[in-house]
TrEMBL record:
Name this polypeptide is given: Uncharacterized protein
Organismal lineage: Bacteria, Pseudomonadati, Bacteroidota, Flavobacteriia, Flavobacteriales
Length: 109
């Protein structure tokens, strides 16, 4: 019984963390679509489109993960799943790429 309760708590914590990351990605996407972050040269347009593609891939993966978490189809071992770990890594990479993009925008052409 205690193991079931612990697993349920871990799933809820995981769900909260994944949802929080999703809200952050939504905010990053909104910033990216703002005219203040619009690219001004071909190289930056490439980075811009890559970043948009990464955001879309993240959102698609997010939907699959959330569905599995809610349906309890993820096999959590001590609160972790390879699929969720991969998703969290995607978030970290996306966050890093976005920061890099913003820094590049501030550099002179």
């Amino acid at each position: 019984m205690e193991h079931t309760t612990q697993n349920s708590i871990e799933q809820q914590e995981l769900l909260v963390r994944v949802e929080r990351n999703n809200r952050m990605v939504q905010r990053l996407s909104e910033k990216l679509s703002s005219y203040t972050h619009e690219p001004k040269c071909p190289q930056r347009f490439e980075k811009f489109y890559e970043l948009n593609k990464s955001i879309q891939n993240y959102k698609d993966h997010q939907k699959r993960i959330m569905s599995k978490i809610r349906q309890q189809q993820l096999h959590l071992i001590e609160g972790k799943s390879k699929e969720v770990e991969y998703h969290l890594q995607l978030f970290k990479k996306l966050e890093t790429d976005f920061a890099s993009y913003l820094l590049d925008l501030n550099k002179p052409l």
